[in-house]
Amino acid sequence: MLSGVKAGLVSADVLRREQQELRSHERNNKHLEEESRYSETVFRDKSGRKRDLAQERLEQRQKAEAQSERDEQYAKWGKGLAQGRQQQQNVEDAIKEMQKPLARYIDDQDLDRMLREQEREGDPMAEFIKKRKARENKEKKEKPRYNGPAPPLNRFNIWPGHRWDGVDRSNGFEQQRFARIANKKAVQELAYKWSVEDM
């Protein structure tokens, strides 16, 4: 049977012997029962290795913190970076204005500049000022320059045009010329060192 005793018609001696064996077996296993009562559960992964739950919880917490930081950054971007900067600038301007005295006089440069920069509807001089500012900006405008990796040297030190694609299509004359100049200079230097070696 499941309990370990024989099934069917059994004599008293056999029954007594089986019960004694069961009791001794229980006594032998008593210490295992006591040990297992207060033991912690061991969790294993699919491959059978023990899992460190504290470490896993720590990693999950770190991932959650990183995710929350990323979500916070995306929320900040979603509101608009330029709008955030503008709002910060407005707060700084308001703090600056609060530090000024309440009465503002005619010689206040900040007030004067602010009033001059305002564009009013129907202002006859506004069009003239816009044209003059556009002309000044046009005069200040520089020609576009090449912005990329350093181009190969040439003997005239001419910078490539702003539309250059970075491909060197020369026949190698410039590099050969620079190599000859460097070689000549090295030979002269070596000859000078050899000539003053005895001194």
TrEMBL record:
GO molecular function: RNA binding
Annotated spans, Disordered: 13-92, 115-158
One GO term (biological process): mRNA splicing, via spliceosome
Signal peptide (from-to): none
Biological source species: Dromas ardeola
Family in the record: Belongs to the CWC26 family.
InterPro entries: Bud13, CWC26_splicing_factor
GO CC terms of this entry: RES complex; U2-type spliceosomal complex
Lineage: Eukaryota, Metazoa, Chordata, Craniata, Vertebrata
Name used for this protein in its record: BUD13 homolog
Highest taxon of the lineage: Eukaryota
Gene, per the UniProt record: Bud13
Biased composition (Basic and acidic residues): 14-74, 136-145
